[in-house]
Amino acid sequence: MHLKSLVTRLLLGVMAFVLAVSCSTTDSTISTSTDAATEPTEGGQLRVAMVTTGAKDDGSWSQGGYEGLQLIAEEFNAEVTLAEMVGDEESEEYFRDYAAAGYDFIIAHSGGYIQSAEKVAEEFPRSKFAIVTTYPGNNKNLGAIAFRSGEVGYLSGALAAMTTETNKVAYIVGDSYPVYEEEAALFRKGALATKPDVEVATEFLKTWTDGEKGKEVVLGLAEQGFDRFAINADEAGIEALKAVTAAYDNVKIVGWTNDQYELAPDQVLTSMLQDLPRLVANSVDLLLQGKWEGKLYKFGLKEGIYSIAPFRGSLTEAQEAQFEDIKNQVMVGEIDISPN
Questions:
Q1: Computed from CA positions of residues 88, 94, 96, 99, in that sequence, does the dihedral angle turn out positive or negative?
Q2: Which among 73, 136, 142, 245 is most buried, taking Cβ atoms within 10 Å?
Q3: pLDDT, tens digit, 9 for 90 and up, residues 113-131
Q4: What is the CATH number of the domain that holds 111?
Q5: Residue 336 located in a structural domain
């Protein structure tokens, strides 16, 4: 749902809050002041808004955020609303409208929203904002929640190198946000630590939704002999996965976010599962505990936010044991997962 100017709607006398999940909407006076309240609205109900770049049923990042919003509604009895398919440039309007409307917590579900969230957070110092990406925060009212992305970057690189038959592996991601640059660096690190002579490629698509771009890039790499891919690119990545596995029987994929086995049952080695809904809900838990301090909060394997989908026979017993050993070393800190 796209929520256009709430202030304008108020002046026109027609105001509609359409909730993205099943919970009732309460009437509330909209404040246009930059001092909008940050405590739950009268009656104690928390009001949470989320803005996403993709559709709520995209099967990947945006859907995970939407499901997190549902968790927030269920677990914290919150009134929630969602604006989906919002580009980076237009996101500022949404954040400002939600803050002016008195929402207690505004979640920017994209690393591409950093600049607009920073600007609006400064305008509304008493509103609380969260970005779902690796970002240091402003030490005031704008914080971030993120995965320890280096963990799965390293593990997917190790797995790709462990199984490649052509000695060429690649990581494909939607954009070059800092979190994904870190993930790409750790993919390379994990691959080279596992097989020092392996060739590693990284591609930043600069899109999460353009399936044609995803297909063009992955097929181009496959033509060069790359046979193992970790693909983290939402809708663009799903189209890339489908295209390359249909064209090349020898190609194997490490899926991302959700279990993508059914997209290519014989060619998906596993998927790096992210409990994105729980990660998103953790931000509100921190807020209600009074711990939302405009900082970066990271979660990963140890907290159960990351997990690995079943291999379903895609690895030999020796490979599966080797991978499990690497994963355990990552979890306890025996393997350095810093990007450098």
A1: negative
A2: 142
A3: 999 999 999 999 999 999 9
A4: 3.40.50.2300
A5: no
Nearest to 95 by CA among 125, 114, 66, 117: 117
Helix (H, G, I), strand (E, B) or coil at 120: helix
Instruction: Estimate to the nearest angstrom the gap between the alpha carbon of 120 and the chain centroid.
Output: 21
Q: Is 235 left (phi over 0), alpha (psi -120 to 50) or beta?
A: alpha
**Domain total in the chain:** 2
Checking if the pLDDT of 39 tops 50, the result is no
Q: Are 189 and 257 in contact (CB under 8 A)?
A: no
Q: Which residues contact 246 (CB under 8 A, 6 or more apart)?
A: 264
Asked if 127 and 172 sit in the same domain, the reply is no
Beta-bridge mates of residue 144? 131, 296
Q: What is the model's pTM?
A: 0.73
* Domain enclosing residue 61, as ranges: 6-132
CA separation for the pair 331, 126 (Å, rounded): 37
